[in-house]
Amino acid sequence: MKITPSVQSTSSMNHFFLKTITGEIDYEVINNELTHYIDAIAERYYTMNRETKTEIIKGIKQGNYFKDVPSDEIEDSLNKAIERLTGKKYPGVAHYYTFLIESAKD
């Protein structure tokens, strides 16, 4: 599978997003970029291509994010962090990311 610049960019932002959600990093400087990333995911999560999904899941597996955390806690954590970052609610993004995190556990 060829990794396009778009997929690579998404993979990098996924890394920062997950590190921020889990509290591993707190870089105010990246929050603006994360807000744009969340907006982009909100606009296209239902049409995201397979390569991008695969890279996001790969990043989740490599980081071992939310390994032993129940789905409802994951989604709650995502909702809270997304609202903290953006000032808005994006339940679709939180639900989609929960699905990806659960997919990475398999």
Helix content: over 70%
Largest sheet: none
Please state the overall shape, judged from the principal axes of the Cα atoms. Answer: globular
**What's the total helix number?**
5
The amount of beta strand, in percent, is under 5%
Helical/strand content category: mainly alpha
Could you list the spans in which at least 5 consecutive residues all have pLDDT below 50? none
First-last Cα distance: 21 Å
Mean pLDDT: 87
Oligomeric state of this protein: single chain
**SSE arrangement, N to C:** HHHHH
Tally the beta strands. Answer: 0
Description:
The structure is a single chain. With 106 residues, the chain is mostly helical. Helices cover 75% and strands 0% of the residues. The chain has helices at 5-21, 28-44, 50-63, 71-86, 91-105. α1 packs parallel to α3 (50-63) and α4 (71-86) packs across α5.
List descriptors.
106 residues; 5 helices; globular
Please outline what is shown here.
This protein starts with a helix and ends with a helix. The mean pLDDT is 87.
Task: Give the SSE map.
Layout: H1 5-21, H2 28-44, H3 50-63, H4 71-86, H5 91-105
Helix pairs in contact: 1-2, 1-3, 3-5, 4-5
